[in-house]
Amino acid sequence: MVTMLCTTAQVKTFLRISSSSDDALIGTLVTQSQAEIDQITRRTFEASSDTMRRHSAVRDVQGARLWLRGELAALTSVTNGDDAALVSFVTTFPRNTAEGPSVALDLMASSAKAWKPESDGDEWSIQVTGRWAYSTSAPDAIVLAHILLTAYHYRLPSAHDGSAELGELNPYALKRRAEAILAPYVLRPRVGFA
């Protein structure tokens, strides 16, 4: 289940709507706007549960570093190809995850461990379990961008048919503000990643 970055209630408060007549519509627009944010930025901002991803002991390993196939907000477990649990023998890279997600795991030099494929040669044998997202709780700026983008979609029909005063809730201005907030969060692909 996907956790929404903002709620229908937050959007209604922003738009100064007290009636519940459009709650279903706004809820649909919240979901649509979140998918749009994920697509624009090429990332997921919040994970509410752990999932496991497999990594290659050949393609994703560079010395003691395992390059992750996605952004990791919180690490739960690591199982090597030889079924050894490695979570206590790795550090995340970058180490300060308050600045953003981890993109790699480094084996500690003191551990004498190595990334290994399974004994049958299956290179996709390293299992990393955790919260695969930018963070476990979306940054406030992203929540605001989500509210703005949802408000844009809600207000857009009235902008086209002229049925409402646009004023400060001009849908085009809302979208521009949301895009400006999202711009620094757009994920740039890593060069040379297989």
Task: Write a brief caption for the model.
The chain has 194 residues and is α+β, with helices and mostly antiparallel strands.
- SS-based structural class? alpha+beta
What order do the helices and strands follow?
HHEEEEEEEHH
List the total number of helices: 4
- Judging from the principal axes of the Cα atoms, what is the shape? elongated
Spatial strand arrangement across the major sheet: 2-3-6-5
- Rg calculated over all Cα atoms: 21 Å
**What does the main sheet amount to?**
4 strands, antiparallel
Mean pLDDT across all residues, rounded? 88
Distance N terminus to C terminus?
29 Å
Give an account of the 3D structure.
This protein has 194 residues and is of the alpha+beta class. The protein folds into 2 domains: 8-45 and 137-185, no CATH class; 51-131, no CATH class. It has helices at 8-15, 23-41, 140-161, 171-182; strands spanning 51-55, 61-62, 65-72, 74-79, 90-93, 102-107, 126-131. The protein has a 4-stranded antiparallel beta sheet, with no helix packed on it. A 3-stranded antiparallel beta sheet has the order 1-7-4, with no helix packed on it. A hairpin with a 2-residue loop joins strand 2 and strand 3 (65-72). Helix 1 (8-15) crosses helix 2 and helix 1 (8-15) packs across helix 3. The longest helix is centred in the C-terminal third of the chain and has 22 residues, at 140-161. It is elongated and about 65 Å long.
Pick out its properties:
194 residues; alpha+beta; 2 domains; 4-stranded antiparallel β-sheet; 4 helices; 7 strands; 19% strand
SSE layout:
Blueprint: H1 8-15, H2 23-41, E1 51-55, E2 61-62, E3 65-72, E4 74-79, E5 90-93, E6 102-107, E7 126-131, H3 140-161, H4 171-182
Antiparallel strand pairs: 1-7, 2-3, 3-6, 4-7, 5-6
Helix pairs in contact: 1-2, 1-3, 2-3, 3-4
